[in-house]
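Section 3.1 - Work completed
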Amino acid sequence: MRAWLRYSLLLSCSVGCAGTDDDVAAAMESGLRTGHLALVAALVADESLIHAHETPDLELRHGPVACCPCKTRQGDPAGEFTLRLDYHDQGCTPDSGLLPTTLAGFAVTFCDPERVVTRLDGGELGARAEPMAGSLRGSVDNAATVDVGGTFDIGERRFRVDLALQNQGEIGIDGVVTVDGVRVALDGLTLPWDRIAAPCPTPVAGTITVADPEDDVVIDLADPGLGLVTVARGRRLSEDVSWCAFRSDLL
């Protein structure tokens, strides 16, 4: 893939472009992989808060797995309450449709009329059961609008998010995710629900900008579309690149 991407760069570089072909291709590839991680973090954050005001389930942890997550609530639903989100010991794919992989274990959400706070310390993500830790807080408007911020870990990776999410006909994502200290801006991402599934979540519009000390890497999800993207770094522009070829190993 690196050799193919380098060939694309050789075709698309105008006079005066800085950096060797290999260096620019490596920066673009790193940007693509970091962009995928930022998108995964956004979807995990959405999943963590979206259930805050849903009706609790009758099924409990040791009963049949008929809900994912199963929700149990303690407290006043019109005031302060605690919601336990149970994804079961064996893991399950969330009913929300926000993730194409499993969550296992549990998360605990604390709610009052002004805010929602979710602790992720009991959860695991994906087939590799990557442990999750940290907390997210924000607000939820009938699950349609989620504003969320916070810091959490998935395995050895650390994420900090500050996001505005829309969950209606399509998922809209705007804001910033920091991936292991690298700032990633998600601008106007549109992710249809049917494009979350394997091989990877694939937005159909918007840009992902990955900060770089020399030149930022900008991924255009809409150009040309159909799972193909273009990547720009400074005056370098790639040809069409498969978005899912650089997908995260977290899913």
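Second construct:
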Amino acid sequence: MLKLIRVTFYSILVMFLLDIFDVFQTKIGFIKALTYYGVLILPIPLLLMEFKTNLSFSKSILRKGIPMLAIIGLLFLNPLRIIFNTSAWKTQTVALVNGKMTNHKVEFQMKDIGAFGYAKRKAEVIYFSEHFYIVWAKKYDERNFSGHQWKRVDEDINEMGLK
């Protein structure tokens, strides 16, 4: 049981770190919410189970240290702020598409942050599949995309279903 929780926690922690640093993101809201809620819930039972199985603190200190650092990091990041970031970025419009790589796009994206409205950004993204992508640049500057390899598309996607 401990091994299952340990593997689950470490995989969720890696997915969480990749997401908050914009290295690897998903459009599937369930996976993102599972990752964020998992990183909030799993460190405490894992730490308790690690102490229960190995009463000596010096034995397997790394196994106890990573959940402790995760708990400290979560308290530093504020759990309420993490909960508000569980929704995924949704594409509203595709402004530009790279002529050489069709999965390289500049998009206007929005995400629902609850009672605070919507967060908005224009981002340069590279898609691995329909639902998984990396954010190449969050700062969109029109001058960087004036070359002949970029095609202006202005395609309305509206994944959020807004009017």
